[in-house]
Amino acid sequence: MAHGWLAHLGGAGVHVDSAGTHPKGVHPVAVEVMAEVGVDISKHTSDHVDRYADGEYDAVITVCDSAKEACPVFAGAKRTVHRAFTDPDAEMPVDEQRVLFREIRDEIGAWVRRFLAEERAAAPRPQNG
Fold this sequence. Notes:
41% of the residues lie in helices and 11% in strands. The chain has four helices and six strands. It has helices at residues 2-10, 28-36, 65-70, 94-122, and strands spanning 19-20, 47-48, 56-57, 60-62, 76-77, 80-82. The N and C termini lie far apart (41 Å). A two-stranded parallel sheet has the order 1-2. The protein is globular and about 55 Å long. Helix 1 crosses helix 4 and helix 2 packs across helix 4. The longest helix is centred in the last third of the chain and has 29 residues, at 94-122. By secondary structure, the protein is α/β, with parallel strands linked by helices.
């Protein structure tokens, strides 16, 4: 969901790669609840983080504590940002799962808005002349 929000709100100037330490597919309820707010993640994939470890990134963002601990070092990253969110993929009836996914979707969306605003405010301004 973080990938979806970053790509959706970041626009053309933001490139997002997304991976996990234990990828197991994009959860169908995540696809459903993101579509409710106009963010299509239906084509997203669930890749292993090692696939991207050699890349160069302005920021590597971890969104759960276990990923923070297990994530490899990204030598090409300018910085690492950690913001943990509750994992909504819990064993419960699907109606309850939707409620939890919506809560986490909204938390992530609010955090991504703040993150992008801070990034834009800190970005170097082009010099005139």
